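Page 47, continued from p. 46.
Same chain as before, 387 aa.
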Amino acid sequence: MSVACLGLRSSRSISSVTGLLRELVAIPSLNPAFCQDRALSGESRVASFLAELGRRKGLSVTYQPVEGRRKNLLLTYRPTERPSHRLLLAPHMDTVVADTQQLTPLLKNGRLYGRGACDTKGSIASMFDALVDLIASPDRPKQTEIQLACLVDEEHGQMGSRAFAARSKTFDLGIVGEPTSNRVVSSHKGVMWFELRTQGKAAHGSRPGLGHNAVADMAKAVLYLEEDYRKELTLRPHPVLGPGSINVGTIAGGKQPNIVPDACSLWADRRLLPGESYATIARHLLKELKARGVRVQIHYRRDAECPALETDLQLPWVKALMRQQRQRKALGVDYFCDAAVIASAGTPCVVMGPGSIDQAHTVDEWISLASLEAGRQSLRQFMSQLP
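Result:
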C-alpha cells in the first residue's frame, strides 16, 4: 500500500520517517478485543505492508504464529560475520479503538495526528527507518544481529509478547517501543486485575436477620482496600516507581431491594512493584480480610501475569544507551507494557520511543515530528556503535 494510493501525497517534502508513520496511521489496526469490524481490526494489514517494505530494504522477513490468524512480524538484519551479539527492537502494531477521523492522518503545526501516532506506530516508524538506513551504510554492525519484532495484542492480553518470549532466543538488550519522549525507562509497574466474591444467604427484606448480607460483607472489604490497604502500600515505596496502588473499579450484588443479597463481587486493579507476585498478593488479602471477619474468594488469571520491570542500569548496552541520551538517573513509569513479559524470558529490556504517553489513547492522539526525528536519530546512532 503506497502513500499515493492512500491519497496522502503532500506538496511539501517530508522526511522518510514522517512519511512512513503517515502511511502506518492510515492503515487501521484496532485490537480485535475492542473492535469486531474486520475492515478495521487486526494487525495483518500493517504487518503485510511492513513485510513488503522490509524485503525491499534487505531485511529477512518471518512471521511468528500467535493465536488464530494473528502473527508477530519479525524483520531481521543478519550481519556478514557470525553474530556474537543480538539487539531486539520491539514495538506493537495494535491500537485502541478509533473513529474514522482518527484513522485519517493529519500533519499540522509540526505534529502528526491519528490513532497510533505515538502508541506505538511512531516507534515502529523510527525503529524501521533507523534500521534500514543503518544496514545500507558502511557503519552497519559486523557481529550484531538486529531484530525488529512488530508484536500483536499489546493493548489487551499481550499475546504477541508472550508468544515471542516463549519461542525466541534471548538478546543482549531489548528496546521496547512506547512513548517515553525518547528517554530510557528501566522500570515499570506491573498490573493485577482480581475479582473478590462474597457469599451470603437470601431472605425477605423485611426479615434481614434470617439471611446473611453479601453486600455488607463486601462493603467491609472495600473499606479495607480503599483505606487500610492503600495506606499499607504507601509505606513500601520503590525508589524509582514509588508505591504500589489499588483501585476498586466495579462492584455488583443483589437482585432487588426487598431481598437480602446472597452474592456480591468486585473487580479491582492493583499496580505491582518489582518482586511482587499475584500469589503473594492474593494470600495477603485473604489473610487481612479474614482477620476483619470477611470471608471472600479471590479469582485472577494465573496463566498470564503482568509483572513489574526492573532492569540493571549497569549492563553495558544499557549504560551506553543512557550515556548517549545524556541520562544519568533511572526512570520508571506507572503503566504496564510488553517489556516485562519479554524480560521474564531472559532478555534485559528498557522502554524507549518518541512521543508522550500523555497523548496515547486520547481523542486527538498526536506525536511531535521533532520527537519522531529525534527518536530515529538516537536509535540510528546507538546501533551504529554496536560491534
